[in-house]
Amino acid sequence: MTAQQLTALLPFFVISATIVAVMLAISVRRHHRLTAFLSVVGLNLTLLSLLPTWLAGTGPVQVTPLMVVDGLASFYMALVLVATLGVMTLCHAYFEGYRSDREEIYLLILLGALGGLTLACANHAATLLIGLELLSLPMVAGVAYATSDRRAVEGGAKYLVLSAGASATLLFGLALIYAATGALDLKALAAILVNANLGQPLVLAGAAMVLAGLAFKLSIVPFHQWTPDVYEAAPAPVTAYLATVVKAGVLAAALRLFHAAGAPPSPLVVKALTILALASMIVGSLLALRQDNLKRLLAYSSIAHFGFLLIVLVAPGSRSLETAGVYMATYLITSLGVFGVIALVSSPAGERDREKLSEYQGLFWQRPYVVSIFTAMMLSLAGIPLTAGFIGKFAAIAVGVESDLWLLVSGIVLGSAIGIYYYLRVISALFVPMPGYERVSESMSWAQSAGGVMLLLSMLLMLAMGVYPEPLFLLARP
Amino acid sequence: MELLFYVAAAIALLSTALVVTSPNPVHALLYLVLSLLAVATTFFTLGAPFAGVLQVIVYAGAILVLFVFVVMMLNLGRRTTEQERIWLSPVAAAGPAILATVLLFMLGRVIMPDTTLTAAGLKTITAKDVGIILYGPYLLAVELASMLLLAGLVAAYHLGKSEQ
Predict the structure, then answer these.
(1) Contact yes or no for A147 and B159 at CB 8 A
(2) Residues 6 or more apart in contact with residue A475 via CB below 8 angstroms
């Protein structure tokens, strides 16, 4: 390997070293704050280690046939790492009051982040599969982290079985395409998807299975059924991880498969993607309407959001690649904020998270600061102007209009219109006047305030993206 | 060789279907052993002897024996001993035994001295080829797979730990 390739792999070395260091530290002495500190320092170093390759700007660096570190990879690696940092901060606040072992969650999340980095750089079917597994397998234990809670264990089992099924489907699909064409390289696979036609039954069946496997991880209808159950069962920081880190990593891999060839995918693939996208937008929005559980509502909202996002896989060209990055960044920062607030008002971990909508009635009068952030994040999810969510949706619709995808654009408009109703329903519940309320002074332990600072930062970043989105577009430009 | 491939593949499919449909775990495990052996045989016929050997040693040998022991150990007491005797009756073993005999017969036919051996696959992959690939271009995949194993280990440790 040359020095340039080793530099490109630096983030992997740093995060692997962090994983080993955290594991050893836990085995020597269980100390919650020390473990969290080590993990956060390691993640920050990993984020810094992205810089040399990014600043050098030498274009794509191919490292063995398995990985390529290019602009797309750097951007999504940064997204994965920033989201992981946010999740770590929430974990620290949330698990501070947890009675059983708290340290493993950091190890699991770090391992998951390594999977996210692998997916962002994946250039080969082998790295795609290993990255996907590394991203989701640790979270089986994450979802079922509170092993004494039946609901959590059930959610973990559900995630284990279904996610293994999805990975098996993906592997089978890759094997079928390999049998027909002998291609394992993602660039070659992308070119095969462009030229897929009815004369290649093996390739088409394989493409369908690959699409199904990825759609499961992105929770696209009809592969979405696990999402509300698992989101509900998992501790709030783990839900935040599932909604941000996992989605960013898988999206990067999906972009390489369906978008990297520079030409639109074959009409058959486009038809399948269009149907999946429309179904997600409509089904996600409609099912969210009748939810009384905030986590389930957000799960359906994420299904609808990824329906909107699928438009970038259908539209060819570098504009839509840029849009994918912008949309993902805005969605990521917003969900981190929303789940962050749920984690903060739920901790210290009680019997179950505060997730019923009725438990949020009039919360503003008790905890005004946190709820203000929550409101801003909800407005961003709804796509109100001056928030990041608006920019994401605007970019997605712009790409759709440019490529004449009117069906999908009208789907986005319809889905967003329905969305405003259920987001506003949550907001109005927060501000219901409570007679005889008592303002609870927010418990400001060190951990809680660190979580609060993270939330405040993410809200500022969200507003900055909404008001002045230019730098974000520049960063996301491949 | 091609005939052996198809017979072994058919046995693999049939016994895997029986794994899923068997109502009791020990029978299912017997079929699973057979299914893994049949898959190993298809690997041999395709010209991948190393993968076939690993399949036999690792899956049929180590992992399955572990499965059987776990299933047996979970059932303690006299009543379950009785249950086990019924489970392991000769009749229960008949199905896997017959299928295994077919597999053995086909294998025997192939290794008769007067047959010419050509792999059904395109070429034969030896252990050396696998090693060169794994520690050359696929080195990163090996390292990442070790991290994946670590993730599995940590997850299993956390979930399996008993609450005091």
Answers:
(1) yes
(2) A75, A325
Say which DSSP state A440 is in.
Answer: P
Shared-domain flag, residues B67 and B20: yes
Residue in B138, B157, B158 nearest the CB of A126 = B138
Report CB contact under 8 Å: A130, B138: no
Domain region containing B74: 2-122
Using CA coordinates, name the residue in chain B closest to A26.
B154
As for how many domains chain B has, the answer is: 2
CATH number reported for the structural domain that contains residue B38 in this entry: 1.20.120.1200
Is residue B97 less than 8 Å (CB to CB) from chain A?
A: no
Name chain B contacts of A63, Cβ cutoff 8 Å: 140
The pLDDT tens digits of the residues spanning A184-239 come to 999 999 999 888 888 889 999 999 999 999 999 999 989 999 999 999 999 999 99
For the CA atoms of A394, A398, A399, A401, the dihedral, rounded to the nearest 10 degrees, stands at: 140
A&B contacts, CB < 8 Å: 75
**CB–CB contact B144 A101 (8 Å):** no
A303: nearest Cα among A446, A418, A205, A431: A418
10-residue averages of pLDDT along chain A (478 residues): 89 96 94 93 95 84 90 93 94 84 92 96 94 94 89 93 95 94 91 88 93 94 92 92 95 89 81 94 92 92 94 86 93 93 74 80 82 92 92 93 92 93 91 71 62 89 92 86
Looking at CA atoms only, how far is residue B144 from chain A in angstroms?
A: 7
B132 and B118 belong to one structural domain: no
Q: What is the pLDDT of residues B111-143, one digit of tens each?
A: 766 656 666 667 788 889 899 999 989 999 999
Among A100, A108, A133, select the one facing B148 at the smallest CB separation: A133
**Does one domain contain both B70 and B146?**
no
Q: Are residues B29 and B92 in the same domain?
A: yes
